[in-house]
Amino acid sequence: MLAWLAYLTVAVVWGSTYFAIALGLESFTPYGMVAARFSVAAVLALGLGRLRREPLPPMKEVGHLMVVGALLLGGSNALISWAELHVSSGLAAVFAALVPLWLAVFSMAKEPLGAKGWAGLGLGLAGVCVLVWPTGGVRVHAGGLAALVVAPLIWSWGTLHGKHFVHGGGLMTNVGIQMGTAAVIGLVVAPLTGGFLRGPLTPRALGAVTYLALFGSMLAFSAYIYLAKAWPPAKMGTYAYLNPVVAVLLGSLILREPFGPREILGMTVILAAVALVQLRPRPAAGSAPGEG
């Protein structure tokens, strides 16, 4: 039940972050936003870990935690933020939905997905395209597209690196180390790439970054790290198919964006795909190697 709550948290909260990132970029540069949101979130996570008296990770695993933080947050997250300066958030959502596919590819030797699972991954990506692909033509920016291709690769590889090499330490403490690593990267890189702000600091942008720090980082990223340990990679990664569903629903409810037959079709296809992956039969005991 805790794993399902974590899954729903990641699906719902991260479904709202595309919009929040776009608002934050009104004032912050991509790495300025990385520095701001993860500095706040890291301090809160580490403080909460100490209050809960969580065990510290073994020293040999601290380096792996820093690698995961650098790849997921200082790398992949920053790339998506930068890409949203140049391409639509819908296109960003399509490429981010490649995460479950890459997780399945990278882990297929240890955790075979099966025909039904692969069919579900393909169907889910098709549903995301139906749901969020722009109707008025795609604004192409070569750099933005390249960033969106690389971002899910980095995210997937970093996720599996943490799953394989990090086993000790408390959840919030480990998350705090990962986010602290990203914050340092942001503080170092931002001055070299245009500074921390790209425009006047508006209340809307500040509120968006605060939301990203508290909910997108503290809450949802902690849930993601827990889920990465609890579930097989491909099953866990289907959260990325549900993020655009949440984004479209929020846009319809809050921004009065269109919601019609295409949106209903896309959501139906996505939910069917998630069901295929989540409910496929498990391999028989001993038929596939374990994590070890």
Strand content: under 5%
Oligomer: single chain
The biggest sheet amounts to:
none
The termini sit apart by: 24 Å
What is the helix content?
over 70%
Shape: globular
| Total discrete domains | 1
- Helix and strand pattern: HHHHHHHHHHHH
Structure description:
The protein is an all-alpha fold and 292 residues long. It has one domain (29-278). It is 74% helix and 0% strand. The protein has twelve helices and no strands. The protein has helices spanning 2-24, 30-51, 59-83, 89-96, 99-107, 114-132, 142-165, 171-189, 203-230, 233-237, 239-254, 261-278. The longest helix has 28 residues, at 203-230. The chain is globular. Mean pLDDT is 84; it is low at 283-292.
